[in-house]
Design a protein that fits this description.
Order of helices and strands: EEEHHEHEHEHEEEHHHHEHEH
Shape: globular
Number of helices: 11
CATH topology of the largest domain: Nucleotidyltransferase, domain 5
CATH architecture of the largest domain: 2-Layer Sandwich
Bound molecules: 5'-O-[(R)-(carboxyoxy)(hydroxy)phosphoryl]adenosine, zinc ion
Low-confidence stretches: 1-7
Distance between the termini: 29 Å
Strand order of the largest sheet: 5-4-1-2-3-6
Number of strands: 11
Amino acid sequence: MLQNNRNASYTMLILAIETSCDETGMSLLQASGGVTKPKFKVIENFVSSQIKIHAPFGGVVPNLAKREHLKNLPILLKRVMSHESRVPPKARLAKGGMSQVDLIAVTVGPGLEPALWTGINFAQKLSDAYKIPIVGANHLEGHLYSFLLPKKRFMIHESRVKTVFPAIALIVSGGHTILLNMKSFSRWKRLGETRDDAAGEAFDKVARLLELPYPGGKEIEKIANRGNANSIVFPRPMMHDNSPAGAYDFSFSGLKTSVLYYIKNNPNFNKADVAASFQKAAFDVLVWKTIKAAREYGACSILLSGGVAANKLLRKRMKYESKKFGLNFFVPHFTYNLDNAAMIGAAGYFALARKKRYSLSAMGNLEI
Ligand code: KG4
Ligand code: ZN
């Protein structure tokens, strides 16, 4: 059944569960190839969004998130396991079908601990009831590996490892902004991170200043398309910091504050111009530092992931700069940028293959 072999050619059926924040995710996927030739096939990938519930509060309320996860998890399990004609025979999970699942992967952190616990407890009960091995997955590793997930259901994505590594990976989400120097799917070194707000957090806060709906990232992108990105010169914090301590760190809270002051001092400000200029300032820093790292460390590719990677301008700019410097560029398909369980299945599979055992308890500040 379960293989720890690094070159496992065995195809494993994984049930993955994600409840780290405000999205309840459940996915059924197949994985094989181990850490050297990973291959994934996504059979089902459901995300139950709680946006409407948290929107009136302008952000995620942990106890409401917990309540919703508790409600959504059994519903999603039923959907994922239902006998549908679209599901291929190996995964056709009719009566007693849970026995076909080889591995349960569940997010153990980072995230909101009450929310994480709902997924962990649910996964543990399933594991006990059906005697299925379970692994804890790191949410950030999920984002990191999400570019390996095929864009269409049932399609296999086989990355040519030679074209990926060494790589510089930028993870930009609502809680993190991290730059990694990766030697392989299992070996990396952290080069830098944000010292205050994460990139996505800055988007959400600026959106609030502009009175745009929650969650703000995609609203900023939408409105920025109508604005002039060169109309306001906002600061590019730490962009030219070449000190050993700061060369690959980020800071977005000053940028957000400068947007606040601009709005206060210019009562007739143009929302689209502010959004476009803010977005440009944030992306200038992200793209500059990522390319700088790739050149310094002799990378052959750039990996971009996390919720902010859903932004078309960031994808375009990072791709353009990568090409300019002869680097390959990898970014997840749009389905897998925001929190989802398919990426947790990939992270769980890699954790197993790497023999990286996370404890099955909620770790709000788990690092990568
Ligand atoms: O990865 P994710 O779904 O959750 C975390 O792990 O944090 O990322 C969510 C973040 C939010 O801050 C959201 O505003 C941002 O990603 N985001 C975007 C866009 N779509 C989502 N930021 C900029 N442009 C977007 N299109
Ligand atoms: Zn995330």
